[in-house]
Amino acid sequence: MNLAQTDPKIAELIRLEQQRQESTLELIASENHVSTAVLEAAGTVLTNKYAEGYPGARYYGGCGFYDQIENLAIDRAKQLFGCGFANVQPHSGANANLSAFMAMMQPGDRFISLNLASGGHLSHGMKLNTSAIFYKPDHYELDPKTEQIDFNSVRAKAKELKPKMILCGYSAYARTIDFAKFREIADEVGALVMADIAHIAGLVATGTHPSPFPHAHVVTTTTHKTLRGPRGGLILTNDPDLAKAINRSVFPGTQGGPLMHIIAAKAVAFGEALRPEFKTYCTQIIKNAKALAARLQQHGYRLVSGGTDNHLMLIDLRARNESLTGADAEKALEAAGIITNKNGVPNDPRPPKVTSGLRLGAPAVTTRGLKEADMTKVADFLDAALIGKSDPAVLEKIRKEVAEFCKKFPMPH
Ligand code: DSN
After folding, report:
1. Which of 85, 177, 304, 308 could form a disulfide bond with 243, CB atoms 3.0-4.6 angstroms apart?
2. What is the pTM of this model?
3. Whose alpha carbon is nearest atom 4 of ligand 1?
């Protein structure tokens, strides 16, 4: 029996969600639309099986095909990122980070990172996260003028605290990351470098952002953002000792059975990312982000750091309208069919559930085929919705226009 017959309620909700995705503009920087091949692999009988362990060394019988699938995923990941080792089992990015921490540090060890409020991630030492409960985080800063990484602050913190690890890679940072500079500072104090490239993984894989290798000792990522695979995590390294420690810390350190249907979907996505058209896609993401940023600036919005080098941008809404909050903007835009997320800006006086900022990204709309001129139109929709945010009739009119516009850009096949 198919889903519509056995569970019509869930089937209907999935249908509605599909319709929502098709008729709205997805500007959340960490989201994307996967291919039907990735979807197909994720929805298979591979979900039925336990495969604890690694290829050739499982704790369950019947894993022969799973070994072949996981080995393909590993080989493709290594090829994609130009490194010697990949663990494809982490269920998520946060889990990849937890496992990487466990491989690099002992409980109580110090590390330094960018804090959540300045563009970092909660798994980089936010006080309620395991990264802060089991380890000792401290934070380097952004330069208040350029709103980019302040390497004087990285060096000063590193020298003062002698951390075991220096963490770079961010969730709301629009500028190129200088991995070599992090390594230079880490070498001065004998620290390891970990790069969390979750946001920029597709760009790194295609050379449209510099690679963390050979500078980072350990690289973690999600597989579902610019990399356009299923939701999941991945850990990479070139260091054989760290590789062994990572395998132990993923299983049995932090996980049991791997999600083999998702690992198959990761393999499919890595295969797609190895093709030349994926580089064209990633190049277009950056062009589209720059076009969106430029038009927003023409409309009077201030972008944190003054622009973007990658797939995302962070708008400080206060320059356009002092009283406009990120939360209000997110809500009004959703009513107009434009999906975004509120986000704190550096030194944001408003709390995280309110914020003064909005984070936007181009990966999903680029997958749908939007080009630079279309991004200009997207910025115009966005500005019109924020100007008319208190008038439901205006928002509804824009929602209809957005839905019509979306018809020109079909979902991937
Ligand atoms: N929550 C993700 C993001 O939106 O950036 C990071 O994991």
Report:
1. 85
2. 0.97
3. 30
What's the pLDDT band for 310 if we cut at 50, 70, 90? very high
Q: Is the beta carbon of 124 within 6 A of some atom in ligand 1?
A: no
31 Cα–ligand 1 center, Å: 9
The ranges assigned to domains in the chain are 39-273, 277-406
24 within ligand 1 shell (Cβ under 6 A):
no
Please identify which of the residues 150, 196, 272, 348 carries the catalytic annotation. Answer: 196
Q: How many other CB atoms are found less than 10 A from the CB of residue 333?
A: 28
Give me the mean pLDDT over the 190-216 stretch: 98
Structure letter (DSSP) for residue 138: E
| Runs of H (alpha helix) within 24-150 | 36-42, 64-81, 93-104, 130-133
- Name the one residue in this structure whose structure tokens are 């939360």: 327
Task: Write the residue with the smallest CA distance to atom 5 of ligand 1.
Answer: 171
Give the pairing of strands 218-222 and 192-196. Answer: parallel
pLDDT at 1 over 90: no
Q: Tokens representing 223?
A: 């597989």
The CATH number of domain 277-406, selected from 3.90.320.10, 3.90.1150.10, 3.40.50.970, 3.20.20.70: 3.90.1150.10
Q: Which atom of ligand 1 is nearest to the CA of 222?
A: 7
Residues forming beta bridges with residue 236, ordered by sequence position? 86, 219
Alpha carbon of 222 to ligand 1 centroid (Å)? 9
Q: Rounded distance, CA 167 to CA 78, Å? A: 21
Cβ–ligand 1 distance for 171 under 6 Å, the answer yes
CB contact set of 90 (below 8 Å; sequence gap of 6+): 96, 99, 220, 232, 233, 234, 235, 250, 255
